[in-house]
Amino acid sequence: MKAIVLAAGIGSRLGELTKYAPKCLLPIAGRPLMDYWSETLAQAGVTDVYINTHHHAEQVRAFIETKPHGLNFVEGYEPILLGSAGTLRAAYDFLSGEASFFIIYADNYVELDLNRLKSFHKSSGYPPLVLVAYPTNEPTRCGILEMEESGRVISFEEKPAHPKTNFANSGIHVATPQLYDWVPTTQPSDIGFHVLPKLVGKMYGYVTDEYIQDIGTPEAYAAVRARRERNF
Hints:
The protein is α/β, with parallel strands linked by helices. Helices cover 24% and strands 28% of the residues. Strands 1, 4, 5, 6, 8, 9, 10, 11 and 12 form a 9-stranded mixed beta sheet that branches. It has a two-stranded antiparallel sheet with strand order 2-3. The protein has a two-stranded antiparallel sheet with strand order 7-13. The radius of gyration is 17 Å and the shape is globular.
């Protein structure tokens, strides 16, 4: 199985922390964040990963050349950011022939079993996209889903002023190549704004209480580091 890892973000909200390092390589209990992701992907049967780079690309390049956890990486360097959906379009040839694949935002720290996500995808009849959803206390800052009992998404809105639920898109997905029917050919383009709204009624949400934390702020990053050092 293959995966796309979105790792090109600048991480401007983290200030000095990302001045000299990319967000995906920030250390957590002595390991880069991307090393945790590599382990999680390998445990789910992933062998090959497309990763986009931009900010401090040379550091990410040096990391993936070590083939962490046995993964084979293909780098998609973006001198000008393509947006998340633009990166997905750029990886089209990489995914040729795949029955399904993961799409991962690397700025999350997770303690997550992706095999459960794969099983839910299968039991739902292999829809074009399943995204991992979790309850959030800040729904106006997230992409928010409204779902039927089966998990089928009946509404989606990115950063809504008046959220209908508190179930947020985590940025962790499994998809089939059918997803490309809704991916724009223009760039830059964004999954949350330009793809997911088109998939309402066709995609599913997989709700989990497993640990998921975006490390986009110094406070969130500190919380993840404290959790990892305390629990492991």
